[in-house]
Amino acid sequence: MKMEDRLKFWNNRANLGFKAGSNDEILKDLEIIEIKKYLKHGTKILEIGCGNGITAIEIARSYDVDLLSVDYSPKMIEHANKLLEKETNLKGRIKFQVLDIRELNLKDQTFDFIISERVLINLDSFEEQLFTINNLYDILKTEGTFLMCESSKRGLENINKERKKFNLEEVKMPWHNNYIDDEKLESEIDKIKFTLEEINHFSSTYYLLSRVINAHNLVSENKEISYNSTINKMAYKLRNLGEFSQTKIWKWVK
């Protein structure tokens, strides 16, 4: 997989607003809500792979923080700045910058929080993901937090096991992604500088109902798959059960 192909893909999605990072708007909203629960006023935050700035702006609407949000896609940063120009009542301050997470050069800065949101899954290998995670350790303050909101291979496998029971097609990992390998992460956790404090399966119920129950109903009725269906909106409000989170948050602390 060539990074140039991924870059072209993300440049082309930069003008899609809330759907730039994912066509599933409910999932995107769930991610933002859950990430915000960990944050607090008066902190300095680094957001890696910020896309077109949707999450950063939502955070700055809620918290008095200083945000440095970076992405390797110039088009994403261009659209992020356009969105930022329209904001007139933010509590926090945001700076958007073109920067490749594989080449972070921020040794002169430290942060209270670092956030990734489906970003590490755009790297080519587990080894590259591991290398990037450890690089982040050096720019996080002592007792700081790295919120790693990423897609999980195990979560995808668990969803597909349930889909199989209803004769639904297997959900494939997108061509441009390399989901976090949970087994590798667990077996090589001693190579990670951070301490893993929590794994938050915040999207488990949503994925189970949207990718299995809703999908089965729509297929049975010969209807197009819709992310904004009634069942999906109900799942949005229910408490989480099981480990069906295709997207989860690993909370790492220094």
Structure description:
The protein has a 7-stranded mixed beta sheet. Strand 1, helix 3 and strand 2 (66-71) form a beta-alpha-beta unit. It is globular and about 55 Å long. The protein is built from 9 helices and 7 strands; from the N terminus they run ααβαβαββαβααβααβ. It has helices at 3-13, 25-38, 54-62, 74-86, 126-137, 153-165, 182-187, 204-220, 230-235, and strands at 44-48, 66-71, 93-98, 111-117, 140-151, 195-200, 247-253. Helix 6 (153-165) packs parallel to helix 8. The chain is 40% helix and 19% strand. It has one domain (3-152, 176-203, 244-253): 3-Layer(aba) Sandwich (Rossmann fold).
Class based on secondary structure composition and strand pairing: alpha/beta
The helix count comes to 9
Helix fraction by DSSP (H/I, runs of at least 4): 25-40%
Largest sheet: 7 strands, mixed
Question: Total domains, how many?
Answer: 1
Rg calculated over all Cα atoms: 18 Å
| Low-pLDDT windows of residues | none
Amount of beta strand: 15-25%
CATH architecture: 3-Layer(aba) Sandwich
Overall shape: it is: globular
